[in-house]
């Protein structure tokens, strides 16, 4: 009996516990608890309001540049917030301040990071904050203030306008004017001019991703893997220039523009720089790789009567954003068929083809650099071999 | 409702779990494997190379250095696999053998290989050294080499340099430092004078081993290159003779009265000779042990079995026979036995020769009034005809199995036979320069 009683009591207790868990809302709370949903909503309530308003103003943000011409409003805000916006504006209006503007963009870019969206988003954030609690935003723009000071513009009216204009300006300023201005940086980045025309092919939505990938990857890859290549010097220059933020940002902007040429949206470049560059952009197409294959097809000399014509080799190599092969990166991955001598000969022929083709220049889409910076090429001469 | 949400959440987790595991693989393309591409079509063209005139260490070496450079260039370009870039295209001359190489200069003129060398002459001795560079890799291909010897054999040293370069780039052994035994032909068609001769592979340095007093045919080098076996009508009938190239002493191998022997060829180890023996109207294959002189019959067939040739490993014999009604090619074990026909195309097949590589058999084909030189696999498959003319016959393989020499004769009373060579790809057909007419080439081994 004791045993039965105990069992019954235990059963009832467990059943009660289960019922309490199910109907008491505990489990429901846990399930509903997913921090992602809850937190997002709660946070959105306060900050998103500003964003919502910004979003509302966002549509016009696509026309930031035109707004940039509203520096007048900035003067009104002279005291605190407006300066930042003025800075961006000022440089645009007066060429002299141009150098200082670069730094602000950098600051602006990080903020834009949260908003993966293109330039408009960056402007959005800036816009909402200004009216009520713009102070934090002002902090971001602090550095440039001095420069803004010199621009004693009139007494515009609405501080909000300047803010909106300011955000777009920063983005636009960095990309648009600086890239062309810094001829040196661009010339170093030989890819910039070539790339710009091609980008148009990419789908609009993917473009920003590509730009981000390309931008971030380009500088990162260069220092890591190009120590010996010609482009290394170029990269080093870009890096050494970083100390001077204006030049660095200009280089970044130019590089971003070059690498993201596909997008064609200049405002995306800075945003891309701020991104982590995990995206590789749209997939490589046959057309994308056809240039590379065509070039290698012209430089790969096959001797159909040689034993090496029966050897298929897979050769790996790394490329710089410029499309140049890093000589030391050319390595034999695998070889099938023939004896050791034939395999060595086949590999050397493939290596010559790669290095020769690199000298002549490979045609590859810069925006997809992440996808072709490492290549494994299979050289299969069996179709050309004497039967 | 709550229960439903709970269950839904649990179900969601169950489904989302695996998804979360696999998602990263899709969302991290930046860290994906290298882009993998395949190339199946390259170009078939000679590799451009630069060969600055070898630097002469002193005025005495000037002429030799220039001559050696020319021979090296002739060897390499003569293969059809290399194309020499004219010196006029060079951006900067090579002034010192040990000077650093400015690869950019050579890349500019599209040279893929660069050969630099130096020659010095001290008394009767000449020293040649060279280095080979892979221009686009900016690195040497192998170590530098040096050859030394009497000035009289400077051509051989040039061939040695060319062989080394050829071997390093192609992965195959060379064939430039080798000799060819052949029959020198002169005189009108009705009164030909035929002499046994030897020359360099490129036709240089011809040397006559017989005086033309009797008809000689079908010479073949021994595997070590020291002896030549051939057919002579010295006795009035064809018989097989063996000559020591150095001493030029010859001896008749068979002494069986009432017979004729012809089409001799050495076994790969040089210890045995296989040949055809005609007796009482029947021709069969026999072998003879050179050490003991003992002969062994391999075939016993009423047809004509002739033109035997050993496989490179000595395990098989390929020969021609008309046992099917017309000349065809057969393969059988080296010790004799069942012969398997391997040629089935139209026309007649003759003079089969097994490649040193063992992968091909070269042959002469006659069809519809024209002659062809072709190759096929040992099983008779993949027949390819390399040449065609009024009369092409008697193929012989280069030591590395890459090139075939043969006899070509044009119609007409005044025409003399000539020796031609062709790459096994069918490219690079060219005449070998000889003094007068020449036929029956037999490519000897690579010299030590």
Topology record:
The complex is a heterodimer of chains A (387) and B (448).
Chain A: H1 2-23, H2 26-32, H3 35-61, H4 64-68, H5 73-77, H6 82-93, H7 103-114, H8 119-126, H9 135-141, H10 145-148, H11 160-181, H12 183-188, H13 191-195, H14 206-225, H15 230-241, H16 245-259, H17 268-274, H18 286-299, E1 312-318, E2 331-336, H19 340-360, H20 369-372, E3 374-379
Antiparallel strand pairs in A: 1-2, 1-3
Helix pairs in contact in A: 3-8, 6-9, 6-11, 7-8, 7-11, 7-17, 8-11, 11-16, 14-15, 14-16, 14-17, 15-16, 16-17, 18-19
Chain B: H1 2-27, E1 35-39, E2 47-50, E3 55-57, H2 62-78, E4 82-84, H3 103-108, E5 113-122, E6 125-134, E7 139-140, E8 145-150, H4 154-170, E9 178-186, E10 193-200, E11 207-208, E12 216-221, E13 227-232, E14 239-244, E15 250-252, E16 259-266, E17 272-279, E18 282-289, E19 295-297, E20 305-310, E21 316-321, E22 328-333, E23 340-341, E24 348-354, E25 361-367, E26 370-376, E27 384-389, E28 392-397, E29 403-408, E30 418-423, E31 430-431, E32 437-446
Parallel strand pairs in B: 2-4, 2-5, 3-5
Antiparallel strand pairs in B: 5-6, 6-7, 6-8, 9-10, 9-32, 10-11, 12-13, 13-14, 14-15, 16-17, 17-18, 18-19, 20-21, 21-22, 22-23, 24-25, 25-26, 26-27, 28-29, 29-30, 30-31
Helix pairs in contact in B: 2-4
Mean pLDDT of chain A: 56
Number of strands of chain A: 3
Largest sheet of chain B, described in full? 7 strands, mixed
> Major sheet of chain A: order of its strands?
2-1-3
SSE order of chain A: HHHHHHHHHHHHHHHHHHEEHHE
The helix/strand class of chain B is mainly beta
The gyration radius over C-alpha positions of chain B equals 29 Å
**Low-pLDDT runs of chain B:** 6-31
The fraction of residues in strands of chain A falls at under 5%
Provide the residue-averaged pLDDT of chain B.
91
Q: Roughly how many Å is the radius of gyration of chain A?
A: 29 Å
* Biggest beta-sheet profile of chain A: 3 strands, antiparallel
End-to-end separation of chain A: 93 Å
Please write the CATH class name of the largest domain in chain B.
Mainly Beta
Summed up, the domain count of chain B is: 2
Which homologous superfamily in CATH is the superfamily of the largest domain in chain B? TolB, C-terminal domain
Greatest interface by residues involved = A-B, 59 and 43 residues
Number of DSSP strand runs of chain B: 32
Give the end-to-end Cα distance of chain B, rounded to a whole number of Å: 95 Å
Count of DSSP H/I helices of chain B? 4
